[in-house]
C-alpha cells in the first residue's frame, strides 16, 4: 500500500513536464490526484485517464490561478470530484528571458502574478482543510538561481519572482509549525522538458553550461517532491532542495 494512500494531491500545471511527472509519482505513492491545467486540457485529461487506470482517483480541472475567484472554484471542484487537497504542489510559473531594461511593466506584473500570486492563491485556499486535519504537505517550485544566491542575467523578473516564492515558503513554514503542515521548496536546475518545450538551439546551450554535461529530467525533480510529500518527511520544513546537478554550486 502506498504511503500516500487516502490522501489527495493537487498539482498545478500538471499537463506536461515537471507537473505531469510529479502527478504520476504521487499517484504511484497511492495519492488521488487533481491535475490542474490552464490551456492544455487534452494532455491533462489524457494523463488523468492513465492515472485512474492505476487504481487511484484523478481529475483534470482547468483554472486561471492568477484569479482568486477561479482558484476558489477549482478547490471546490477538486474537493467534490476527488477530495480536498492534503498535498499541494505549486508548479505553475511562466518564464521570461529578457534584460530588466527591456522588460515592460506588463511583463513584470505578469511574471510576478504567474509565479507568486498563483502560489499564494492556491496555498491560501488549501490551508483551511490542512489545518482542520492537522496534516498537510506544500511543495513550491523555485529555481536553482535562487538556491545559488547569485546574479542571473536576462531573467531578472523570473528570478525575482522565484526569490519571493522562496521567502514566502519560509514564512509559511514557520506559521504552520503547530498545524502538522510542512512547507518546502524544490529548486530545479537545467531540466529537459522535451523537444516541444525547448526552442531550437537552446538545448545545446543548456548542456554546454551544465556542470556535469547533461540535463536533468522531470523525474529527477518529481522524486524529490514525492519525498517531501511523504508522512516520513514530517521533520523537514522551511527547506529548499536543489535538483540541479551541481548548478547551484
List its salient traits.
single chain, alpha/beta, 249 residues
Q: CATH superfamily, called what?
A: NAD(P)-binding Rossmann-like Domain
Q: Write down the domain tally.
A: 1
Q: Could you tell me the strand content as a percent range? A: 5-15%
> Mean of residue pLDDT?
92
Shape label: globular
Tell me the helix content: 40-55%
Radius of gyration: 17 Å
Question: Strand count, sense and closure of the main sheet?
Answer: 7 strands, parallel
Determine the CATH topology: Rossmann fold
Structural classification = alpha/beta
Strand order of the largest sheet: 3-2-1-4-5-6-7
Uncertain stretches: none
Number of helices: 8
Number of strands: 7
Explain how this protein is built.
This protein starts with 7 loop residues before the first strand and ends in a 6-residue tail after the last strand. 45% of the residues lie in helices and 15% in strands. It has one domain: Rossmann fold. The protein has 249 residues and is of the alpha/beta class.
Summarize the structure.
Helices cover 45% and strands 15% of the residues. It is an alpha/beta fold and 249 residues long. A seven-stranded parallel sheet has the order 3-2-1-4-5-6-7, with helices on both faces.
Write the layout of secondary structure elements.
Blueprint: E1 8-11, H1 17-28, E2 32-37, H2 41-52, E3 58-62, H3 68-81, E4 87-90, H4 105-133, E5 136-141, H5 144-148, H6 156-175, E6 181-188, H7 202-209, H8 218-229, E7 240-243
Helix pairs in contact: 1-8, 3-4, 4-6
